[in-house]
Specification:
This protein has 865 residues and is an alpha+beta fold. The two termini are 23 Å apart. It is built from 22 helices and 29 strands.
């Protein structure tokens, strides 16, 4: 059997499930059909319409629509290389009549050889629900009507014969749509179309208003006085405003003056202006005016993690990717008017096993936050569930985000979640509690009911969890793929909305009621919710509820956990520059993000001649957590040549463990071809399927824009097919501590299941993106048939024991000193993560060669897939 697996595995290493270069169905309207070249465009200093004959040229044009969303569509973008004008049939009344010779004039849109005009097209989009969310409406991307609008836009683009007609359509609706709806639709169009690559910049670079406190970053109109008075109580500054006290702990209050503005329930703490360092605007997260929590709250220690802009932009992008619609339906009879192949409408942005990915990724995020808490000496995450909803949350949270992107309204942003805010409103609690009871009943019955009354079984067999995806889709993302949306509700996504409306406050014995017009807080949006500590407490409750499903499944057996004939002898970790093995090094560093499309001279609505320029914005420098490069080696003995998966998890030290299901982070997962005998396999974790390097501008001209225009050195397809989704690579490891925090690495070699998707996967394509966190591209099966998070998704049966215990190491494996006592294909290795003080520069990397980095006799390089 092992020999057959190896032959199958080797046979499919070069097999591709989809073409390595993109293609396009039909004539593109301006050149040869099925064009897929990657070449330089804009050689004259600006792009011309023939750029659509290249993969990168098409991508430049659609990405240009996401720059300067508050500016008219005909203004220049992409370093002044792109200027789009509409034809007479579609132009805005404000579009200049004189068209520059450097501009691209997009084509008319025709239906049955008749030109469709601007007002007709807008009418169609309204009928199709593209504009279901108003341009200035407050709505979360977790709201079903948000996804309805996004899906409708994506569906309509399927009805146009040429790519340039799609651009014409998008340019018309760009100024009609809610900006976040439009941005999400463009993301899903890029994700689903076969004539576009997957190259999408980080959202923090494109939409900085969602991820940086732009109201504090520049411009005379955005400066505020420090809102502190000389009086102090318990080390906090106290401001009296309208007869109430406003407290905030900060340094430098002795230099403060009375504030003239109050932001919701927190005063602007601009005790110091943003520090200008050369061309950079510098943010220091834990100091005014950027500080978001008082020093008295221990959660303030974790701001470097929660408020990391690339982590938040990952979650926003990931949310859209995972919750893409399962099917795109024709709308308003529109397709019946088009001479367009029906099979072209079958394309979907939906990714395989999306419900399970949503569960596993939330679990991984909460696990990562738990390890950060351990690093900072904080206790485990306290659950925020129904028992806590009736009581006020003592300390609020102010994200300091003044977003003009979200709803197109100048000055409106995410308001503070005030001190002593309370979640429990009767109608909210009733919805959430009813959903929880329905969930528990489904677990007890081991089945779901579809919308026709049929039964959907919840079961696990053959090493696979056959119910998890339907279960999670029904309770976490019901508007996309629920088996019965009306019956099961939408527990997870409703919670974003309800938490985002937490503006009720205990005042004495009374509750001040909120209303939607009063504003929303950062918990309302997937782009910003990770910033608030309450997100982790609430999701701990949600995950605990979902864990009842996993607990209802049969326990893992020895046969499911073991790999006969395979033994792991050693697992060793080495950080570059560390003087001993199994010690990893983290540090704080300065990083930069260029904010494309943000003009600090005018952060509000477009006005005035100064906006008629390429919006390149400024460069923000901020502190972030990072680590020195590291790798690991695993010595494995196999009685025969075979193949499987090597899985690596980071878990707390034994003193912090209450069970092996919570607080576990999956670090790496990769297919391994085991040679007969004893070999050492080396793995660079930077290639893990769970993280990615954020694609951002770090200077001007912007590197990713330059790469797209230049054609990546003419044909580097591995770059243009990079999917910008995944936990930021700099946050792969928890912070650790100055003295060194103890953790453990858990390694397991697991067998492929029968007909495992791993045997058919195109690993060269999968290596280009973080499929472990973000799923595979649409139409590509998830390349691991075991449950996500295996074996920590549920409890095992202990080897040679009649009962099992959560805290007994022998349930899973052994450590390096006593590997014979547990399962031979599993190993536990103690490690230390040490944090060094280096806030202003990267630590010196020692160049000595460690004996653990040198090759040993019999060592085998880990295969790169």
């Amino acid at each position: 059997m092992a020999g057959v697996i190896v032959l199958l595995f080797l046979g499919f290493l070069g097999h591709s499930l989809y073409a390595g270069v993109v293609y396009q169905t039909g004539d593109n309207g301006y050149g040869d059909p099925n064009t897929n070249s990657i070449r330089p465009v804009g050689l004259k200093g600006y792009l011309t319409i023939d750029c659509v004959d290249s993969v990168n040229g098409r991508q430049v044009l659609i990405l240009s629509l996401l720059q300067g969303l508050n500016r008219p569509y005909w203004y220049p973008t992409f370093d002044n290389k792109v200027q789009l004008y509409l034809p007479e049939s579609l132009r805005s009344a404000d579009q200049p009549t004189s068209i520059p010779n450097t501009a691209i004039v997009l084509p008319d849109i025709q239906i049955e050889n008749s030109i469709i005009y601007r007002e007709q097209l807008i009418h169609i989009t309204r009928k199709a629900d593209c504009l279901k969310v108003g341009r200035e409406e407050m709505v979360s991307s977790s709201d079903p009507k948000f996804q309805t609008s996004v899906s409708a836009i994506v569906s309509l683009t399927r009805g146009f014969k040429t790519y340039v007609q799609v651009l014409s359509f998008l340019v018309v609706i760009r100024d009609q749509c809610n900006q976040l709806v439009f941005a999400a639709a463009v993301q899903q169009i890029i994700q689903s179309r076969t004539d576009l690559p997957t190259y999408l910049p980080d959202l923090a670079s494109l939409y900085p208003q969602e991820f940086f406190p732009v109201g504090y970053l520049g411009g005379e109109g955005n400066k505020h006085s420090c809102a502190c008075l000389p009086e102090h109580k318990n080390g906090n500054c106290v401001d009296i405003f309208k007869g109430r006290q406003w407290c905030y702990s900060s340094a430098g209050c002795h230099d403060a003056t009375k504030s003239k503005s109050i932001d919701a329930y927190w005063s602007y703490d601009a005790c110091t202006e943003p520090k200008q360092v050369g061309k950079y605007v510098e943010i220091t997260w834990n100091k005014p005016p950027f500080k978001t929590l008082p020093d008295s709250d221990p959660e303030s220690l974790l701001g470097y993690w929660r408020e990391d802009p690339t982590l938040n932009s990952h979650f926003g992008s990931w949310f859209q990717r995972v919750n893409a619609p399962a099917t795109l339906q024709p709308v308003f009879g529109f397709y019946s008017m088009l001479d367009f192949p029906q099979d072209s409408m079958d394309g979907s942005s939906k990714i395989d096993r999306s419900g399970e990915i949503e569960y596993a990724h939330h679990k991984n995020l909460i696990g990562r936050y738990s390890l950060e808490r351990i690093s900072n000496g904080l206790p485990r995450i306290e659950v925020y569930g129904p028992l806590e909803w009736s009581f006020p949350v003592p300390i609020g949270y102010n994200s300091k985000l003044k977003s003009v992107l979200s709803y197109g309204i100048s000055g409106l942003g995410y308001l503070a979640r005030p001190d002593n805010s309370i979640f429990r409103q009767d109608w909210m609690a009733e919805i959430m509690e009813r959903s929880a009871l329905t969930m528990m009943a489904s677990v007890k019955d081991k089945q779901l009911y579809d919308h026709l009354g049929g039964v959907v079984p919840l079961r696990a067999e053959g090493g696979r969890d056959l119910g998890i995806n339907d279960f999670m889709n029904s309770f976490m993302s019901s508007y996309t793929d629920s088996v019965n949306q009306m019956y099961y509700g939408d527990t997870m996504h409703q919670s974003y909305i309800f938490l985002g409306l937490m503006r009720s406050v205990f005042e004495g014995n009374n509750i001040t009621q909120f209303n939607l017009e009063g504003g929303i807080n950062a918990l309302y949006s997937p782009n910003t919710c990770l910033r608030d500590p309450l997100f982790y407490r609430f999701n701990k409750f949600i995950l605990n509820a979902f864990s009842h499903y996993k607990a209802s499944l049969p326990l893992y057996t020895d046969a499911e956990l073991e790999f006969p004939g395979v033994e792991i002898h050693e697992l060793t970790f080495q950080s570059t520059g560390a003087h001993s093995a199994n010690q990893l090094i983290t540090f704080m560093e300065k990083s930069e993000i260029g904010l494309t499309g943000l003009d600090f001279d005018d952060i509000g609505e477009p006005a005035g001649k100064d906006l008629y320029k390429n919006p390149v914005g400024s460069i923000v420098r901020y502190e972030r957590l990072n680590h020195l490069p590291w790798d690991y080696k695993v010595k494995i003995h196999s009685e025969e040549e075979t193949a499987g998966f090597f899985r690596l998890f980071l878990i707390p030290d034994a003193e912090f463990v209450t069970n092996y299901i919570d607080d576990v982070v999956e670090i790496d997962k990769w297919p391994i071809l085991l040679q007969k005998g004893t070999k050492v396999y080396t793995r660079n974790p930077s290639t893990t399927p769970f993280t990615r390097e954020p694609m951002v501008c770090k200077d001007w001209p912007c590197s990713y824009q330059e790469n797209l225009v230049s054609g990546f050195g003419y044909n580097k397809t591995e770059d243009i097919f990079h999917v910008n989704c995944g936990i930021p690579q700099n946050l792969m490891l928890p912070r650790g501590s100055k003295a060194g925090s103890r953790f453990r690495m858990f390694g397991i070699v697991s067998q492929f299941l029968e007909n495992d998707e791993a045997l058919l996967a195109d690993w060269s394509e999968l290596s280009k993106y973080a499929w472990g966190s973000c799923g595979t591209n649409p139409g590509v099966p998830y390349p691991d048939s075991r449950p996500m998070g295996f074996p920590f998704d549920r409890v095992p049966v202990c080897s040679k024991m009649d009962s099992y215990s959560h805290s007994d190491d022998e349930c899973y494996g052994h450590d390096a000193r006593a590997y014979s006592n547990g399962r031979s294909n599993i190993i536990l290795q103690n490690i230390v993560i040490k944090h060094v003080n280096s806030s202003t520069h990267t630590p010196t990397i020692h160049t000595h060669t460690s004996p653990y980095m040198a090759k040993k006799e019999g060592e085998k390089e880990g295969l790169t897939f």
